[in-house]
Amino acid sequence: MEISITPSSAAVSDERLAEILANPGFGLHFTDHMFTVEWTPDSGWHGARIEPYGPLTLDPATAVLHYAQETFEGMKAYRHDDGSIWSFRPEENAQRMVRSSHRLALPVLEVDDFIQAVDALVAVDKRWVPDPAGEKSLYLRPFMFASEKFLGVRPSQHVTFMVIASPAGAYFKGGLKPVTLWLTEEYTRAGRGGMGAAKTGGNYASSLVAQQEAIGHGCDQVVFLDGQEGRYVEELGGMNMYYVFDDGHIVTPETGTILEGITRSSIIELAGKLGHQVEERKFSIDEWREGVTSGRITEIFACGTAAVVTPVGELRSREGTVPAPASTDFTTRVRQALVDIQYGRAEDTFGWMHQIV
Fold it and tell me: Which residues carry this modification: N6-(pyridoxal phosphate)lysine (predicted)?
């Protein structure tokens, strides 16, 4: 793509930026610029540009507001100690957006164009990438939406792809703490032939009432079961699950109706290198309960872009409480190994890191 760049005339001052990067939180502050490119059937992708960050003007009849035809991604840019800036497996995010676009009847943005768009925005706003101390990073949000002014129910004939960025602090302040989970038996997130494997806002919208239910029971996150039998663990509101057994093998619920997490797939490879066999299969809630009670399941953890890896504590439900497993040894080890690669503290033998600046 040919990308035009219009520098912001109201960029955040260096002094204010230093204040933001000292305590960025998550999703609270946004960089000076944003990337935009548009698509129509006649012109394809066109008008690629980086311009000052600002509000969008949308007609009330804009299709995405009525039919939720949109996809998004979540990824990070990391500053290494030498000042260089890297992303983690961006081609995987790009390929997942291709799959999501097919499912949502959106046009495909090619992998190389996706990576170019993300790299271009990070290069322009590189001063917003925090120093690596404290596991800070620049969170990147590429997204695509139906931007046609039309109320008919059909795929949009005008689509917009954008990238915005927001500095992010460490997900866990004060150290790694196990999350408490609530098992929802009333709500399901996805079913066979649905949109569970697509990264689209509707999947997250459908999780919110169950997440409210979890918080109401004093829990941090919600666990969803499959929509067909209500027996098999699928995922949390925004993370994938892993179960470590006493013989060293690890189980993670199979994909198909759940999101193919990039952190998830990376852990499968990393665990193999650390000498652990990983099974991707159906995993029942009864196996969870029995495995923890018998001691066969020694650790449980969840993973995702924002949290990376987090240990899982007790599971609560209307049937009672399953206690937290006894250990977090492997959880801590695999998390550290992954973070060390992302921040350039360990050799990237997998070829996962992509240099931007």
Answer: 199
Q: Are the beta carbons of 316 and 220 closer than 8 angstroms?
A: no
Closest CA to 70 of 140, 149, 143, 139: 143
What is the domain class of 4-168 according to CATH?
alpha beta
Pairing of strands 320-322, 297-304: unpaired
Under a CB-based contact definition with an 8 Å cutoff, are residues 203 and 195 in contact?
A: yes
pLDDT tens digit string along 259-295?
889 999 999 999 999 999 999 999 999 999 999 999 9
d(CA 120, CA 104): 26
Per-residue pLDDT band for 326 (boundaries 50, 70, 90) equals: confident
Task: Pick the closest to residue 100 from 70, 74, 133, 140 (CA basis).
Answer: 70
Distances, alpha carbon 314 to alpha carbons 62, 223, 231, 284, in Å: 44, 12, 18, 16
What average pLDDT does the structure give for the chain? Answer: 95
Note whether 217 and 182 are within 8 A (CB). yes
E strands, 212-329, in order: 221-225, 233-236, 240-245, 250-253, 278-281, 297-304, 308-317, 320-322
Q: What is the pLDDT of residues 185-209, one digit of tens each?
A: 999 988 888 888 899 999 999 999 9
Handedness of CA 41, 47, 50, 55 (dihedral sign): negative
Count of positions (residues) in the chain: 357
| Residue recorded with tokens 């969008």 | 56
Lowest mean pLDDT among 16-20, 172-176, 183-187, 193-197: 172-176
Helices (H), 23-147: 64-67, 90-103, 111-124
For the chain, the domains span 4-168, 179-342
CATH 3.20.10.10 corresponds to the domain 179-342? yes
